[in-house]
Amino acid sequence: MIKAQRGTKDIFGLEAAIWQGIVQKAKNVFTSAGFEEIKTPIFEATELFSRGVGDSSDIVNKEMYTFSVGGADKTASSITLRPENTAGVVRAYIEHNLNRQSPPQKFWYFGPMFRYERPQAGRQRQFHQIGVEMFGIKEAAADAEAILCAVSFLKAIGLNSLEVEINSLGCKKCKGEYRSSIKEVLAPYLEKLCDDCKMRYEKNPLRILDCKNEECQKILELEEVKKVIYKDYICDECKEHFEELKKYLDELNIKYSINKLMVRGLDYYNRTVFEIKSSALGSQSAVCGGGRYDTLVEMLGGSPTPAVGFAMGVERLYSLIEKPLESDDLKLDYYIVSTNTLEAMKLASKLREKNVKADYDMQKRKFSKQLEKAAKAAKKAIILGEDEIEKGFYSVKDLKTGEQRRVNSFDELV
Ligand code: HAM
Fold first, then answer.
1. 245 and 384 both lie in a single domain
2. What is the DSSP string of 245-261?
3. Does residue 309 fall inside a structural domain?
4. Based on CB atoms within 10 Å of each CB, which residue in 9, 115, 404, 408 is the most buried?
5. What digits encode the pLDDT tens for the residues 228-278?
6. Beta partners for 407?
7. Residues whose CB is less than 8 angstroms from the CB of residue 376 and which lie 6 or more positions away in sequence, other chains included
8. Residue 214 to residues 119, 193, 220, 281: CA-CA distances in angstroms?
9. What distance, in Å, lies between the first and last C-alpha atoms of the chain?
């Protein structure tokens, strides 16, 4: 038997109905905040991610599904299944001049992402994200708006008590100085760092700060190292930006904590980064991750444009929300019980045109068998026997109460 690939999952039945509810809520919350939906392709040029997400990230180094397409000659091109969607949205933003409207330009999306990671609870190779990206605003109000929208959506799906963590990575200038001092203090321990961190030491030493490896953790716990990594390194302008964000969050009554070691796993961030976590998720505790990326648009060929956004893992949202035992969405409004297939087919089609969910038997099964199917699949049965067809009425049976009554017109059925 051919089975689904490791780290992928089939979603159907009640789970699919609940997923649809989550995505519908996202659509409601984000469109009412002025975000437009954007759908970008699932595969892109590999270069978009190596340049966009950054070649010091685990994603680009180890986790991309990359293919060479177009033959082995010079026309062959390298494509990658998107591991995340910020780079793709930025590409689309530049390609279609979406900056023509006055800022902010706000987009939301939902779709599958692909990372070749070791599968475990909360971590898959194909997973789904709901995310937003907002362009054109450098003020901290945009960072606050992003966090506010994320929290509002989480509330709308019943998740009220998640922990918001924020940090500021500073700008190119202050990050540069911080990088150098981290390298300096870690230099004597370079050989003891894990292989990933040895590479990070050269490419992006800040990423060492949230390494989960035990040996690396021990080094980060050393007093002399702690003194450097917890130092207030960001410049006055970045500090002011961060203070402003905190003020907005305080005024909005959004509880948060500051996690000075949070750097996030993608290279494009500057200033604000944030995560929303739940301890109920175990080691993969983040449902939402995001932040500001003021240099990415320019780096990918557009004009300098500040931007901020976030993405949430739908699988993780699903595992946290309270799930109903059944969903009315899965039930038909009517199951038509009839041995006259053609009449049943016509009635079902007329009902469906009116957005009434209806189905019927296609095999001329016995009435009792059809009623059994109706009881499982629908809220009500329409019994369409010879008498009903001849005299032009419907017998409608409520499948919960067992009550049956005569309905005289199609409109009444609807
Ligand atoms: P990220 O932190 O890599 O950020 O992913 C965001 C969320 O996607 C995570 O918090 C988690 O819920 C979910 N997620 C990530 N990887 C997996 C996986 N292997 N299995 C299941 N769920 C996963 C980004 O992707 C950025 N593009 C977010 C962003 C948007 N920043 C600015 N704009």
1. no
2. HHHHHHHTT--EEE-TT
3. yes
4. 115
5. 999 889 999 999 999 999 999 999 999 999 999 899 989 999 999 999 999
6. 394
7. none
8. 20, 10, 10, 21
9. 44
